[in-house]
Amino acid sequence: MVSRTSKHRGGRTHGRGKKAGRGAGLRGGRGNAGLHKHKWMATVKYSPGHFGRHGFKRPQSVVADKITMNLSDLEQSLPGLAEEGMATEKDGQWTVDLTKLGIDKLLGSGRIGTPVSVRVPEASARAKEKLEDAGGKLLEA
Asked: Which domains does the chain have, with CATH numbers?
């Protein structure tokens, strides 16, 4: 039986038409080739938002999140903070400087029973209330 290749010997296109046998010729180029030229109507119909700029970039001052800590986490981490020298205890009253830890805001989630004086740039109203109920206070950072 004669092979397909030898059957087409002497024929210019080997049975593929004029451009089908050359690279990506039959499909009008590879990938996004021709989106501004011969594939323009398909671009307009199927992906009209393909070209151009979209949306905007928000300023980092708005996007940046505050690093927060809850009261319950603060109470649990007091012994560890004391070992690192970030917290001190005197007569059952703890003193903690959260600015050294990089904490921006103290939140009021959880319970606290230990009196703690906390230095932090910002605190929620609930956190301040719970701290004072436990016998602690909020210091200005």
From this structure: 16-55 (no CATH), 63-140 (3.100.10.10)
